[in-house]
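Hi R.,

Here's the chain you asked about this morning:
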Amino acid sequence: MPVSVELMIFDFDGTLVTTGEDIANSVNYTLQSLNLPTLEKEKIRTFIGDGVVKLIERAVGQEGKAFQEQALEIFSRHYEMHMLDHAALYPGVHEILQHFKEKRKIILTNKRFLYTEKIASALNILNYFEDIIADDSTPFIKPDPMLVKMILERYPVRKEKTVIIGDGVNDVLLAKKAGIVGCCYLNGLGKREDLISLCPDIVFERFEELKDKLI
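And the predicted structure, written out as tokens:
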């Protein structure tokens, strides 16, 4: 039975857009610049999802703890110039946004606003969304349920009519903590086993499936 929704909240990295390659390249550029050991890209991808500060903390590790602030500056400069080198929409994203064009939609991401807006604009999906709520937009980041409280004050929709669509543990946890519908994309950056173990309300492999799972 499809779930009826009025507000669709989309995660960004690993859900709408394939950003992992460019993030990993900027992280390794940062590590090289500081004479720290570079990391496997797959390892770096596991660091994504909790904001850029946590990303850099994890990447530099204990060995580079003293360089965290400098690393953040280097990463930010490099990523700003290279965030669109490999970024692309996941298959079916544009079609599903068009399919649900009459639904209210926002982006909720632990990524910074500037990066999110620039990539969404370059990939021609910005106009589908009423708002971008990013890491630097509020004092809260996923999975803090205060985010949903704030969103539903701005967009007065019942919780059972609100869905978050994401690929990460934070998206599933936010849905559970806030009492909204959690819809999990299994082919993004998040580990499939971790996501399934949290028992999200809806799981999907391809975006076209959402046409049958949400109305």
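The chain has a mean pLDDT of 96.

Let me know if you need anything else.
M.
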